[in-house]
Design goal:
The protein is mostly beta strands. The protein is globular. The protein has a single domain, classed as Jelly Rolls (Sandwich), CATH 2.60.120.10. Strands 1, 2, 3, 4, 5, 6, 7 and 8 form an 8-stranded mixed beta sheet that branches.
């Protein structure tokens, strides 16, 4: 990806489906992804990496086996590697994700919600 200014709102405006992350930028071996979230995802883990969620708008609940974590705009939460989690949102949420390149959105769960990483135009 070339060095260029990227606008988060413009990037989000191009996303038409929920749970389909799009690469906004790359930093070393990490991808910065934008995503629209609504509904409930699948329970999954990322055995080899932490996952950072930053909510831009809306309210996101990250269900953990021992508690729920609720994030609002400008909140950040890191799900530690190997921790089973399930994001959900009653209304649409706009978020940034920070993950190592190649991280699959459904982690070890796979299934129909697994997305290929989309590139922004």
């Amino acid at each position: 990806m070339s060095s260029q200014v990227r606008n988060i709102d413009d990037a989000l405006a191009t996303i038409t489906e929920h749970w389909q992350p799009h690469r906004l930028a790359s930093v070393n071996d990490y991808d910065v992804k934008v995503v629209k979230i609504q509904g409930e995802f699948v329970w999954h883990t990322h055995p080899d990496t932490d996952e950072l969620f930053m909510v831009l708008s809306g309210e996101l609940t990250i269900q953990l086996r021992d508690r729920d974590v609720t994030l609002g705009p400008d909140d950040v939460f890191v799900v530690p590697k190997g921790v089973q989690h399930c994001p959900k949102a009653t209304a649409e949420v706009h978020a940034l994700l920070f993950e190592p390149k190649g991280t699959v959105n459904t982690g070890d769960a796979g299934g129909e919600m697994t997305s290929q990483l989309h590139e922004l135009a």
